Automatic annotation (TrEMBL):
Belongs to the DapB family. This is 4-hydroxy-tetrahydrodipicolinate reductase. InterPro entries: DapB_C, DapB_N, DapB_N_CS, DHDPR_bac, NAD(P)-bd_dom_sf. It comes from Candidatus Nanopelagicus abundans. Keywords: Amino-acid biosynthesis, Cytoplasm, Diaminopimelate biosynthesis, Lysine biosynthesis, NAD, NADP, Oxidoreductase.
Length: 248
């Protein structure tokens, strides 16, 4: 399978190039970065594009790839509901193309999100603390947003009441940014790569589910799963957890 990487000179892109090059069943067809022509994807008969660029350029990249029948695996952040709707519309015109938007490629992170979704059924309160390196340009992280959405969905299914919170006065931002039912608190500092804690509370006990990415190589097994399976899932898929059966 011929695979190209966009954002190939970035930290995640560099890791992706190495992982794809080392995989015996994949061929690195192109490694493109700022200023390179997307036409190279067509010239090299690329079948799958991996995008690790930035929120400002990712939609243009995806439009080009999808309109040319190329499947896409996306680790770039910044996908709100508006962008997902635009992507669905684009894919509806190219129904054989698969697109995976993955807030996190770490297998441990995927499990953390699934465990959190399960735990949300049993606890009255949940909050998220996400910690990333100082160069991360968005907050909260895509992983934190996705986790909060999954927790909120679980709470709705089990008809949980509003979380208890008697705060009457607070400095702006001190209670975090709320996604669905869940407050998210973001930390940005040198010394971190990507980390997240999900804290659940109820009468007399708490449960903390934490995932730590020590280095970016830890994202590559999940990325390869996405690349190898995106063709099987035409249309839009959000979250690597939807490929869990293919992780065996």
């Amino acid at each position: 399978m011929k695979v190209a990487v966009l954002g190939a000179k970035g930290k995640m892109g560099t890791e992706a190039v190495s992982a794809i090059s080392a995989a015996t069943d994949l061929t690195l067809s192109a490694s493109l970065d700022l200023g390179d022509s997307l036409e190279e994807l067509i010239k090299t008969n690329t079948e799958v594009v991996v995008d690790f660029t930035n929120p400002d350029s990712v939609m243009k990249n995806l439009e080009f790839a999808i309109n040319n029948g190329i499947h896409v695996v996306v680790g770039t952040t910044g996908f709100d509901q508006k962008r997902l709707a635009q992507l669905k519309e684009l894919l509806s015109k190219n129904p054989k193309v698969g697109a995976l938007i993955a807030p996190n490629f770490g297998l441990g992170a995927v499990l953390m999100m699934q465990f959190s979704q399960t735990a949300a059924k049993y606890f009255e309160s949940a909050e998220i603390i996400e910690l990333h390196h100082a160069n991360k340009v968005d907050a909260p992280s895509g992983t934190a947003i996705r986790t909060a959405e999954m927790i909120t969905d679980s709470r709705k299914l089990t008809k949980k009441p509003a979380m208890p919170d008697s705060t009457k006065s607070a400095l702006p931002g001190s209670r975090g940014s709320k996604v669905g039912d869940v407050p998210i608190h973001s930390v940005r500092s040198h010394g971190y790569v990507a980390h997240q804690e999900v804290i659940f509370g109820d009468m007399g006990e708490t449960l903390t589910i934490r995932h730590d990415s020590i280095n970016r190589a830890g994202f590559m097994p999940g990325l390869l799963i996405g690349i190898r399976n995106v063709k099987k899932y035409p249309g839009l898929t959000v979250g690597l957890e939807n490929y869990m059966e293919d992780m065996k």
